[in-house]
Write a structure and sequence with these properties.
252 residues; 10 helices; six-stranded parallel β-sheet; single chain; Rossmann fold; two-stranded antiparallel sheet; alpha/beta
């Protein structure tokens, strides 16, 4: 496990902001954040609008632009600089779109098994076609028209974590505002250092069926720092030790 160098103080470490994936909330990153805080790191785990403790907001008014604004606001309101900004899964879309607006505040962007959109691409463009087609057709037979139900296919598999922990995790996942998946990204390239971390035990499908496979290839084609960890698509749940060690290292 990576630990802080004996000559390095917490003040020398970059603040860390982790943006959660689809259907989740900042709550899911609290255990990892608490472990990093024991080393004195400043760690923030905001919840995107319409999800988690912010699920009371009107989903019809929440789109990708809202989530981009959420990310920007955290760094600006906390007045953070030299930030390691970590995007998990879906969060790669709003983080990528936000990056140009806050590039002067960033030390590194980390894509943790995350989507990597190009300019004009929506999250739905990067996800399996059947899921995207259902979004665009408005097929929401088991929920309100403005909300996307949690797909069974993205749930952490049995055995990926202690069962009580996994059940409590799944119970807190919530439907997500549909416009967050459908609005196109406004991506402006930046020169911020970037790391892509691939979960080798991803449960989203096999080979090309896993949408993150293509994202990992984009990262390699771009020449980004590329890492792999042995974990499912929710590495903070299935292998928190590896995630904590990785973020400690990058925060240094």
């Amino acid at each position: 496990m990576v630990r802080m160098d004996s000559n390095r103080t917490a003040a020398d470490m970059h603040p860390v902001v982790v943006v959660h994936g689809a259907f989740g909330g900042g709550w899911e990153w609290t255990p990892v954040a608490d472990r990093l805080r024991t080393d004195g790191l400043r760690v923030f785990t905001p919840t995107l609008s319409g999800l988690g403790d912010r699920a009371h907001l009107d989903p019809a008014t929440v789109g990708l632009g809202t989530h981009v604004a959420d990310v920007v606001a955290v760094l600006e309101m906390e007045d953070l600089e030299d930030v390691v900004l970590c995007a998990a899964s879906y969060a790669g879309v709003p983080v990528t779109a936000a990056a140009a607006r806050i590039a002067n505040r960033l030390a590194r962007i980390v894509y943790l098994d995350a989507l990597v959109p190009r300019d004009g691409e929506a999250a739905a463009d990067l996800l399996p076609r059947q899921f995207a087609d259902e979004l665009r057709a408005g097929l929401r037979s088991d929920g309100p028209a403005h909300l996307v139900p949690v797909p069974a296919s993205i749930l952490p598999p049995v055995g990926s974590a202690p069962e009580d922990l996994r059940r409590r995790y799944v119970a807190r996942l919530q439907p997500q505002p549909v416009l967050t998946f459908l609005e196109p990204s406004d991506v402006v390239p930046t020169t911020v250092a970037t790391t892509f971390v691939r979960s080798t035990g991803s449960n989203l499908g096999q080979g090309a069926d896993d949408p993150i496979t293509a994202m990992a290839q984009r990262a390699r084609d771009a020449g980004w720092d590329y890492r792999e960890i042995e974990a499912t698509h929710d590495p903070h749940l299935s292998n928190p030790d590896a995630v904590v060690a990785l973020l400690r290292e990058l925060a240094g």
